Amino acid sequence: MSDQAKDERVPEENPAAGEAAATGEGGDYEALVKLLKENEELKDRALRTVAEMENLRRRTAREIQDARAYAVANFARDMLSVSDNLRRALEAIPAEVRAAADAGLSALVEGVEMTERSMLSTLERHGVKKLDPEGEKFDPHFHQAMFEVPNPQVPANTVVQVVQPGYSIGERVLRPAMVGVAKGGPKHQAANDAPAEPGPVSGEAERDA
Fold first, then answer.
1. Which of 86, 104, 126, 170 could form a disulfide with 69 if both were Cys (CB 3.0 to 4.6 A apart)?
2. What pLDDT was estimated at residue 188?
3. Strand 177-183 and strand 128-131: pairing?
4. What pLDDT is stored for residue 208 in this prediction?
5. DSSP symbols for 111-166
6. pTM metric for this prediction
């Protein structure tokens, strides 16, 4: 065979090389899919972490706010007993004695009253509110029923007498109000069950009639 014939021979294809190229392309695709999946997992994990941190931030802020609002609760509860004693001292003085009191006794009574008002005002500045629910519907979360009063003139479970005022701090009860409630009257009617009031007469409706 001549040298020219040797040069004109067509090179044979290598099946193994083709398979290797196809395998390489498939491996790159699988690696890309794997990376995309890992990326989605990392993104989901990051979003969950951000959400958890936001929830933690809100919970911590709420706990700090509650701590500030209710930090004086125990102290305020103790001070209420002092206020009660001041009120009892004032109520122990008969009206005729106060009316005929000399300058010294009048000054003493006025000083006790000023002390009581100042104490309650200070407690109010720290979020303590007085509960004086006479005429309101009985609420077991804020009131403590001491007795019942037969009274058909008012709805049942209406507070008709306050034996001792209660106090709240924020949304919590510091001391429930001790009350007497009515019985025998009609039940309280819910706002959405109230009968519809007749509206103004329509001139157009009158003409149609």
1. 170
2. 59
3. unpaired
4. 40
5. HHHHHHHHHHHHHHHTTEEEE--TTSBP-TTTEEEEEEEE-TTS-TTBEEEEEE-E
6. 0.57
Q: What is the total residue count of the chain?
A: 209
Instruction: Answer for the pair 183, 150: CB distance below 8 angstroms, yes or no.
Output: yes
Distances in Å between the Cα of 10 and the Cα atoms of 2, 13, 18, 171 are: 15, 9, 18, 94
Q: Is 181 helix (H, G, I), strand (E, B) or coil?
A: strand
Q: Which residues pair with 168 in a beta bridge?
A: 129, 173
User: Cβ distance 190 to 137 under 8 Å?
Assistant: no
Four-CA torsion 160, 166, 170, 173, nearest 10 degrees: -100
Residue type present at position 100: A
Q: What angle do CA 174, 180, 182 make, to 5 degrees?
A: 130
Q: Are 176 and 153 in contact (CB under 8 A)?
A: no
Pairing relation of β-strands 177-183 and 143-150?
parallel
Joined tokens for residue 64: 């700090």
Q: What backbone torsions phi and psi does residue 135 show, to the nearest 5 degrees?
A: 90, -10
Note the pLDDT of residue 201: 37
Q: Which two tokens stand for residue 139?
A: 């609420």
Check residue 114 and give left, alpha or beta (phi > 0: left; psi -120 to 50: alpha): alpha
Query: Strand order in 159-164's β-sheet?
Result: 143-150, 177-183, 159-164
Write out the two tokens for 129. Answer: 């509110």
